[in-house]
Structures are given as structure tokens and as C-alpha cells.
Amino acid sequence: FATGGKSKEALGSDGTVFKLLKKHGYLIKELKPGLSPIRVYENTKGIENERLKGKISLLIDKKIVYQEFGEILVKKDGLSGICIMNCSSIILRSKNFKKAIISIDLFNEFTLEELENKFKKYNDLAGFSFLEGIFTLKMSEFIRKNSGAKNLYKFDNRDVKNIVSYVKNVTFTYKENYGFDDSQVTIGGIDLSYLKETLESKIEKNIYFVGEMLDVDGLCGGYNLMLCLASSSRVFTSLN
Ligand SMILES: Cc1cc2nc3c(=O)[nH]c(=O)nc-3n(C[C@H](O)[C@H](O)[C@H](O)COP(=O)(O)OP(=O)(O)OC[C@H]3O[C@@H](n4cnc5c(N)ncnc54)[C@H](O)[C@@H]3O)c2cc1C
Questions:
Q1: What are phi and psi of 104, to 5 degrees?
Q2: What is the pLDDT of residues 80-118, one digit of tens each?
Q3: Which of 163, 64, 157, 151 is nearest to 112 (CA)?
Q4: Atom 4 of ligand 1, residue of closest alpha carbon
């Protein structure tokens, strides 16, 4: 069996094979849409389609569990991008948590103090909002609003301090993953305890399982295709 998971049904796999396998006595670990964009509680409509670069930290119940530097794509109701999709899988694998937060540091290369000095200098020099020299107007407005500054074209020192604190820690609260149609890998699948090391079934002779249908999934970076190749190679070797 190499019938895949349940992600992107349009490409062929809808997960129906798992129903058949359940009837044959296999334990199927719950299928979830891994590596997908996420919906967040905050309103992102004003900055839809923005592409941001930064260091993201995933906090589950206030504890940092994952960090990655990358590009974040803002959607009308959430976030996407490779680093966000990686977070989505980690969140779905986490159990019994209350709150997951994505924190984005848009200026990871500077400390708070360094950035404050820089922004103060820009603010003194610029005859217009210095934020607009760095971000789009939409994003500048978003930052102004969320950092509490009143006027995009006139920041005082306190505004600059608040802007610096905000851009070093732009937070979004996780609501849910997008569904299987937007996911790049299925979390869950056939429980490995039902398989021998050769990937032959322990309960049915001459039946083998490979690829995404196994209860194994990786983050972005070629690991999921590698699993397909490695598991197929394992079966090929044992059959020969
Ligand atoms: C958009 C997208 C981008 C991705 N990018 C990457 C990437 O960059 N790197 C990476 O490592 N991984 C990536 N992946 C994941 C990777 O492509 C999959 O994990 C991998 O292709 C799974 O291979 P598979 O052979 O196990 O299953 P599949 O490729 O899903 O093949 C299963 C086949 O079985 C067929 N089938 C299903 N049910 C039945 C049935 N009942 N009867 C007969 N045939 C059936 C299906 O039609 C399909 O042809 C991506 C996935 C998606 C969707």
C-alpha cells in the first residue's frame, strides 16, 4: 500500500483507504492537516497579502517550543509561509495546551536598545513617517495602530519606544489550521506498532506499507518525500 494520506484530495488521496485498513484490524492514528496555513484570532484584513521577514517563535502555553527565521505571508484570516506551516504541524502534534502564540521579531538583527537608537535617529531625520521608509503604508499603519501611536507622521520618543517593542514582538494567537485541501502532509496514519522493521504488516502476511500513509511526518525541507523514498527502498530491499 502506497496510497498516501488525506492532504490535497485533488491530487488523488482522500484517505478512504484508512477505513478499509481499520476493518482489517489496524490502528489508524487520527489524521490531521499538517504543514498548512493557520487562522488566527487577530484581525489581519488590513495587511492581507503582506510578506514579512523575521524570526518567528512559537510559544505553547508561554513556553518557546520552536524558532525559525523565514518569510511570513499574511492572509485575510491568518498566516502562511514555510515557517508558519512548520509551526502548524508542531501545534497539531502538541497535546492538551491552552494557548499557542506566534511571535514575530521583524528586526532580529538588532537588540531593543540598538533598534530604539536607530529609529530615534530616523525619526529625527525623516520629514515623513520613517516607518513608511521600511514598510508599506498598510503595514506602517498596522504597526502604528498596534503600538498605540496616534499619528503616523508625528512620533514622539515614547511612540518610538512602543513601536520598537511592538516590531520586536508582533504576536498572533493560533485559532486553527486550514483544512486538508491546504495542507502539504497528513499527520497520523497507520500505527507503526502494527508493522515489522521491513514495513510488512504484523497481522497480514505479504502486506507492506510505505510513504505518507505511515504515522510519520516531517517539517518542510524534503523530509516527507525522503520518507517515501526511504520506506519504499526498505520494502524493495526486503522483497529482494
Ligand atoms: C502542495 C504540496 C507540496 C509538497 N511539497 C513537498 C516538498 O517540497 N518536500 C517534501 O518532502 N514533501 C512535499 N510534499 C509532501 C509529499 O509530496 C508527500 O508526502 C508525498 O508525495 C506522499 O507520497 P505517497 O506516495 O506516500 O502518496 P501520494 O503521493 O499521495 O500518492 C498516493 C497515490 O495513491 C493513489 N490512491 C489513493 N487512494 C487510492 C485507492 N483507494 N486506490 C487506488 N489508488 C489510490 C492516489 O491517487 C495517489 O496517486 C508536498 C505535498 C503537497 C500536497
A1: -115, 125
A2: 999 999 999 999 999 999 999 999 999 999 999 999 999
A3: 163
A4: 184
**Binding-site residues, ligand 1, Cβ < 6 A:** 2-4, 7-8, 11-13, 16-17, 184-185, 211-212, 222-225, 228
Cβ distance 33 to 182 under 8 Å? yes
Q: Does 3 reside within a domain?
A: no
Residue nearest to atom 33 of ligand 1 (CA): 3
Rounded distance from Cα 6 to ligand 1 centre (Å):
9
With pLDDT > 70 as the criterion, what percentage of the chain qualifies? 100
Q: Which of 190, 198, 184 is nearest to 233 (CA)?
A: 198
pLDDT, the chain, mean:
96
- The amino acid that residue 128 corresponds to is F
Q: pLDDT tens, 20-58?
A: 999 999 999 999 999 999 999 999 989 999 999 999 999
**How far is Cα 202 from Cα 175, in angstroms, rounded to an integer?**
39
Domains: count for the chain = 3
Which atom of ligand 1 is closest in space to residue 12's alpha carbon? 47
**Are 96 and 46 part of one and the same domain?**
yes
Does any domain span residue 157? Answer: yes
The residue whose CA has the least distance to atom 27 of ligand 1 is: 4
